[in-house]
Amino acid sequence: MKITALLVLKCNPEARIKSDPVILANASDGYSRRSSVKEFIVSVGRTVAKQTLPGQRQSVQYEEYKVHSYNRSGLCALGFMDDHYPVQSAFSLLSQVLDEYQKNFDDSWRAAQADNTEPWPYLNEALTKFQHKTIDSVPAQGEMLDILIEKSSDLSADSQETTDGRSFIFRPKELGIVHGNNSRYWRMPPDNTDEPAKLLDVCWIEICGSIDIKKLNPGKKYQIGFKVSLTNGARGWSPDSVVRIIAKIGKKGKFNWRTLNLEGYERKKIFDIPDNLLIYIPRNASFSEEKLHFGLYEIWGGNWKSGLKIYHAFIKEAGKAVKSTEANTAQVHFTSAQLKEN
């Protein structure tokens, strides 16, 4: 199990056939630093990156190399690995590389016109760290979840909440849904409705939100979850496509999470997931500037998925029903039309 090289490239989706991707960062093992091998890796890397559309992940075989590629809105990470390196671990690593690149360089890559020859220490460290062990075999599973959940923004001002701090609802447009603004991947609901967001076709699900913990009742436990359903034609939810619902308080807090597989859930039936994710709100929460971060993720399976509907996320005091300030009744109601295939 080996990684030969890691690359980060800028791709131009508008001119991907005419314009070669630009090398932003490049790390390789000792053998691959030989000029002939390095030229081969760079050439193949450009070719694969050019053929990887925004939002797409793919794996291709080039001679003895398995090349994994992930294009995130024009910023593309590639890994040259052997056949023994697990595919889902490869894509988890590439996602982490892109996260770190954007964290360090923000959007400066968009202006790049020529290959960068300066080394990026993080990429060399990642090449060494995960050379013979996968991202899932070290604390990186937790590290990966930390990276994902810290990407959530403060959406508390947009949530529908009760006046006693016992329950909060986050509708689809009040959540951070990766690629949610792209109609190729998601169908978002109209404003001010209870209609769900519908997943059309993605292989990478990231949905997140956050709220100031001072809005919650201190010393209480809160349940975190999502109200969802699956259409009749939902696909891609095989046993290896495990959904994780995660919550934690503050950037340095410990996260709490639950995993589940949606394959066995009844189609066209609305249900809450998970049924047992609880988090304790500290007694000093009223004076804290920390946030409760939460999210729903499926980034490990590698399957293209469709047919998941997200009605809302909820945070409710344990044992309390979720309420909506826009509803006259104690629960949010859904019409039969919302269960129909769109």
From TrEMBL:
Any one GO MF annotation of this record: SNAP receptor activity
A GO cellular-component term linked to this record: Golgi apparatus
Keywords assigned: Lipoprotein, Membrane, Methylation, Palmitate, Prenylation
Membrane topology listed for this record: Lipid-anchor
Domain Longin span(s) in chain numbering: 7-105
Cellular localisation: Endomembrane system
Predominant place of localization: membrane
GO BP annotation list: endoplasmic reticulum to Golgi vesicle-mediated transport
Family of this protein: Belongs to the synaptobrevin family.
UniProt-recorded name of the protein: Putative SNARE family protein
